[in-house]
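BUG: 3D viewer hangs when loading the predicted structure for this chain

Environment: internal workstation, default settings.
Expected: structure renders.
Actual: progress bar stalls at 90%.

Input used:
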Amino acid sequence: MSGSAIQFHKIWIEQCEATNYIRDQFGMKSALDYLIGEKLFHFVQAAEQHPEFAIELPAFLAEIERLFKPQEIDDYLDHLERTKYLAPQEPAFDLDDEDKGEDEEWPANPIRGAEELLRFSRIRQLLHR
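Structure tokens produced before the viewer hung:
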């Protein structure tokens, strides 16, 4: 295995280090959006297909739990659940506009949506060990 391949699945270390700067400069929500809402979701997705990422996942989760208080994590996950994962979907069509309808899918990709919802559920469980 080359050096870059070994380092790639350890990218979470640098991402966690960057989180303190983001929290100081842009606030708690931005730090949570960055580390959990973006980086952790991508990492869990990679871990589903690559064992070297799956091996690193417990350490990444432990560092997230060190960086944020349990209540901060819970509040953030509740926010994601309300606003993204369980929020009612807006229809992609307007009954008053005859030009819409055929060109737009609704929902755009139900399989991807289901995968994201399952990933969210898994992350919630992993952060509540």
